[in-house]
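Good morning C.,

I know you're traveling, so I'll keep this short. The sequence:
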Amino acid sequence: MSADDVRVEELRRRKAQAIAGGGQARVSAQHSKGKLTARERLDLLLDDGSFMEVDPLVEHRCRDFDMDRNVIPGDGVVCGHGTIGGKTVYCFAQDFTVYGGSLGEMHGLKICKILDMALKTGSPVIGLNDSGGARIQEGVASLGSYAEIFFRNVRASGVIPQISVIMGPCAGGAVYSPAITDFVIMVDGTSHMFITGPEVIKTVTNEEVSFEDLGGASTHARKSGVTHFTADDDEEALELTRELISMLPSNNLQKAPVLPTMDPIDRACDRLQSLVPDNPKEPYDIIVAIEETVDDGAFLEVQSEYAMNIVVGFARLGGHTIGVVANQPNFLAGCLDIDASIKAARFVRFCDSFNIPLLTFVDVPGFLPGASQEWGGIIRHGAKLLYAYAEATVPKLTVITRKAYGGAYDVMSSKHIRGDYNVAWPSAQLAVMGAEGAVQIIHRRRIASSGNPEQERERLVDDYEDTFANPYRAASLGYLDDVIQPSETRIVMVKALGALLEKEEVRPARKHGNIPL
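The tokens, ready to paste straight into the viewer:
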């Protein structure tokens, strides 16, 4: 065998060792848990044949605790770049078969290199997380690499889209990188996120809680709001990631993607004519309005199980990607509360960062009353949504379907915080508050002194509703650009968006604002 043949054989051996990861036994163990391996996940995530690996031969430098006797090329994470629908993305996939996917110094620095390359090229970055946490044997070097990753996540925020897919454990300091990224996708039953595990919690607080209840996908989807999407298995999570990438620009200098549609832009939304009930206290499903308005009825809802009194997500309108925000009368009557305000504010800020126009459907009776909301900081948290809408410079379209009361009216992309095109359906009611509450405050003495208080109250309520329970007072003041039939919503919104696509809005120079966090 020639010297060249020896060299080639050595290269092949090293590459094969890197591809083998932790070996067949550990791969089988991974499969037995319903989980794919890191390389199998990347194969499903990326277009066929597009993956180019970076740093497959990197090894750890730890010599303590006999780690020098256990060196595996790649160091427990597969990194590189490829394409999704032809769009370049950078990605890393932690390999649980190698050291339990634990993050050591070199493992972390491989991820840092991917983040740096993504930022330099203006490409989205996707992290597939499946890790036991920091590699204890490497001590502070492991913690240092975590911090280097966090710093890069922050630097890339608002510049390139960042998506974290949790496909196994993600514990301790490891959770903060996904928390900084734009979207978190979790796999039900196999993924977990928490700062401290059940055993530590039991030791410190004497609470007993399972892994699933503490940090499973359903917990974070419904209770904490940490995760934005929940998938049934690895395959669904990766397909969802591909769909999300297709909706987003590669960076903050690009406009949102355009996808030609066969859905006529002048299609009438006849179903919306009778959507809003005659009884103002009766709920209805605002998602019907969204799906009737957008292209092909396709709506990718974000955080669908969290703060369900507000709906956010992505769709297309006339082929253009848009972000949709809508009060949901089916839950808490569509009131804004702490969780809904935070959920919508973060989504609005993401869309503004990446030049994605906003379409807002409004049916809001106000902020949710109650001592727990006040003590929990609804003033500060509600201000986040106000801040986000006022700060946003993307095209902002607003449709008021029914109630738009009090400060919540102002907050929901009103004309006064620079909504660009604001319309209402004839069923809209723009007022400081509902008729019954207003009459009780304004005419309390008149009602009390009346010979028939109940009849007088009803008369005054009817009078108030005749005056304010319609959109025409606001339209006469220029607070609405038009009042439209519900069936016209799609055609009007498509035309308005087309006119606003080249919108530019200059704001005062500053380092950054001080949002009420």
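Safe travels,
E.
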